[in-house]
Specification:
It is a single chain. A hairpin with a 2-residue loop joins strand 4 and strand 5. The radius of gyration is 24 Å and the shape is elongated. The protein contains 10 helices and 13 strands. The strands form 3 sheets. Strands 1, 2, 4, 5, 7 and 8 form a 6-stranded mixed beta sheet that branches. Strands 9-10-11-12-13 form a 5-stranded antiparallel beta sheet. The chain is of the alpha/beta class and 326 residues long.
Length: 326
């Protein structure tokens, strides 16, 4: 099966990743039924003090001022993108004094101030403490809540069923869009193909070439597509024993998009890199010292797979010969 190219969602429109992630969550809750926010607070965050009867809600971004009126109960909620939130993902520094909460969620008698982290950034406990000062006098401030984007995705996936939860058209649409956005961002326990493809969603020619390469490589004997997606689509050889070898080719997000041929010796890599640099004006290799056996080709310079088929074939055959696969 070839990789699937997904289109943009309505949440894929901010250039700043951290701002976009926070705004996407707030927009989902703001424009959906109140019941979704209620479930988010009571079922996901386990806030037992929430008054379930009212619909007095408010949302905002970048909370630079102290809140004006008490709601009753205040929580700071830290969201990180670690697969499993733990004390190891938290730090305490003196850099959090001037930071402001990324967002505000208020429903009935509960106020939440949100601190969002991405790309493995750790939660700064000094930030959390300083955010608590934003609550107005009279608010009962509880211990902060720590959660991950992956947990949010998993929870929303569970309650997406329109027939079970009877969501209206708008909420059902927004939930579907937000879940796809989470896949684009990698906010899932196992990253999906769209996590890579979303990086090139505004560069359809790159998506097309990536797909051409994928179809071609999967048609070759013993080629195995690395299902544990991290920052690239990786292709390995599967030995007769079932054991998988290191990658011989990858389509990577690195440096805004690089095709990488993983060769077996540095001299071959040096010669092929010179050939690629000559063929594609402006091409350059990154990380020379650590990538001695790699050949890098900038994706923006490749219009068709045929332009790099020779290096793909060389990497494949080179690895097969090494493993005596004939």
């Amino acid at each position: 099966m070839s990789i699937m190219v997904k289109s943009l969602t309505i949440f894929d429109h901010y250039s700043e990743k951290e701002n976009n992630a926070t705004k996407a969550l707030i927009d989902l809750l703001r424009h959906s039924e109140t019941r979704l926010t209620r479930l988010f607070l009571s079922s996901l965050l386990k806030i037992s003090e929430l008054d379930p009867t009212g619909e007095d809600r408010h949302y905002d971004l970048q909370i630079g001022q102290q809140l004006l009126r008490p709601r009753g109960y205040g929580y700071v909620v830290a969201i990180s993108d670690a697969k499993r939130e733990s004390v190891e993902t938290r730090v305490y520094t003196d850099r959090g004094k001037d930071s402001i909460p990324d967002a505000l969620i208020q429903l009935n008698n509960v106020s939440l101030l949100i601190e969002a982290k991405l790309d493995g950034a750790k939660v700064d406990l000094s930030q959390i403490k300083n955010h608590e000062a934003r609550f107005t006098e009279g608010e009962i401030i509880h211990e902060p809540k720590f959660i991950t984007w992956q947990e949010i995705h998993s929870f929303l996936k569970q309650i997406q069923d329109r027939y079970l939860y009877n969501w209206n058209d708008v909420t059902a649409f927004l939930l579907g869009q937000y879940l796809s956005y989470c896949e684009h961002m990698g906010f899932v326990y196992e990253k999906e193909e769209s996590f890579i493809l979303a990086d090139f969603i505004n560069r359809p020619s790159i998506q097309r070439v990536i797909k051409e390469i994928d179809i071609y490589l999967k048609s070759l004997p013993e080629v195995y597509f690395e299902e544990d997606i991290r920052d690239c689509f990786g292709y390995k050889l599967r030995l007769p024993s079932g054991k998988k070898t290191p990658k011989f080719f990858s389509s990577s997000k690195y440096k805004k998009g690089i095709y990488i041929a993983h060769l077996l010796d540095s001299q071959s890599a040096l010669e092929w890199q010179a050939e690629m640099d000559s063929r594609f004006i402006g091409n350059q290799k990154y990380n020379h010292r650590k990538a001695l056996r790699e050949v890098h080709i900038n994706m923006d310079l490749v219009d068709d797979m045929s332009q790099i088929k020779d290096i793909i074939d060389f990497a494949y055959q080179d690895r097969r010969k090494k493993l005596a696969m004939k």
